[in-house]
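Self-study notes.
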Amino acid sequence: MTREDDTTENTPEKTRERLLDAATRVFAEAGYKGASTREICRLAGANAAAIHYHFGDKAALYREVFAQPFVEVMAASAGMDDASLSLEQALERYYRSFFSPLTGGPKLERLLRLHAREQGEPSGVLGDLECQTVRPHHEALIAILCRGMGLRTPDLEVHRLAFCLAGMALVWIEAKAMVDAFSPGLMQGRDPIGVMAERLTRYAVAIVEDERVRRAAVPKKRRS
């Protein structure tokens, strides 16, 4: 490695990236309480003060690692609630953004393990981080559904519908190991993520149409 290469590898941005990658590995394997900041710095090739410099403390580093997939989803979903998009176009953009973390390879496996560990062994340091990071994505979907069904404001049934549509995508991520074990062919072939997004979009459009029909029939039933 030349001196120039070495300098490039040790820029603050590169050091921060290495710390996040190392922290993802250590937190996934040991959990928040069992993770050692010394081990994280060792794996990242950084000095012991690097975590304090870049993140503040171990808890802040953990929160940033935990939020990574949500941040990626939000970045990929930019503009999905654009009023110029049709219902089908908006939902396809929604599902494509949902699957953006699936391109993460081994890193995704570690993040999934970390999220599963957090559910079983709550760290107590996250607060409502997950709610804060997911809420904008949910609210964008609510806006899409209201526009698609001609509603000015959402009601509980719109939220029920939104969680249903989100659940169809979430199972592919949260239960990825199960999907791979039961039907490995589903994630093979050309552009499997694109195929999933296209299929789920078609399912979602049909579900939204069914809900629109159900809602239109309710006043008639009440009148009778």
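Second protein, same conventions, sequence then structure:
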Amino acid sequence: MKAFNIIGKDIPRTDGKAKATGQAVYADDIKLPGMLHGKLLRSPLAHARIVNIDTSKAAALPGVRLVITGADLPKVTTGNWRLFPKTQDEYALAIDKVRYIGDEVAAVAAMDPDIAEAAIELIEVEYEELPGVYDIESALKADAPLLHDGYKTNISIDRKIEYGDLDKAFAESDYVREDTFTVQAQSHAYMEPCSCVSQADQEGRITIWTSTQTPYIVQCLLASALNLRENDVRVIKPTVGGGFGGKMELRSWEVCSAFMAQKTGRPVKFTLSREEELMAGRRRHPMTIRSKIGFKKDGTIMAKDLHIYLDGGAYNAMGPTACFLAGNFGAMLYRYPNYRYLGEHVYTNKPPASAMRGFGAPQTLFAAETQMNMAAEDLGIDPIDLRLKKRPGDR
């Protein structure tokens, strides 16, 4: 038998000892001299126009060093990095409207977390509440309120894939079935809530320690958000307590932390609570999946027509990528000689959905595998045999 160096061997984790003994340093463990603590004010409404924000009482609270709103930050969209600029639709702090409960409206930096929390309570926001849409069906109605200006509907983007002759293939199929599947949102529930600490030097250059999966992306986008050169932003990734796709974007607290560090000349830390993560954090996309598939009597697949609506929540985030990938995953595992996919990313007044482990695959393949089982039963073929059926050249 061939001797292996790794297979069958007990290979210790290189980070195991540090984590087990508490020596691993996470972003929230970092404490710098003179450090301020940041808190975010979040919207209590799902959809509303911001009429006025009064931060005077919060700014006057002893121990508060800075209060900012969207009006104070450079007007640069952020949060989204694999996509074309036109899909970027989110600011670090809301400018004109809030679009989900938990949308970030203002930020405070204070001497300690309790003072920051007290200051947040003193910020007065006047809202003009607007009607909202909370599911795909209501968001697609002709008279649905629109979340974003410049769109004729709440469909933010679509993605298409098509090859073969579907009409001919379905006409030649002995058995055709159509099904609709729905899947719900999921939270990443990583053990470590998001946290970051920013420090600025006298020239305004930033060093940020942040719980992220993508330090280079944070560097690029944070530089853009603050009108800095990329070389003026240094990102340090400490030990990360889980991410699963949920820590792959530049987020509002990172922008606020860096900006407030520049303005105060002191390090600024933001650490989210578990409540904030569950209420307003990114999540896996809910989807409505309509799948039509045709077979020959012997189980040979003839064609598949897939239409997916992705509930993207209030902003695109990395949803356009998920929209594209769902169509790719929909054509995987089995040979589909004729295939068509339409994916539509839909705005709703809920927290944004974005990247999560598998990124479109769990939802799409749940529908595909369930439909294969249903087809096998109707065709009188064992589900395993149906899956193992091959054509010449298949491996």
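Instructor comment on the second fold: The first strand starts at residue 36 and ends at 42.
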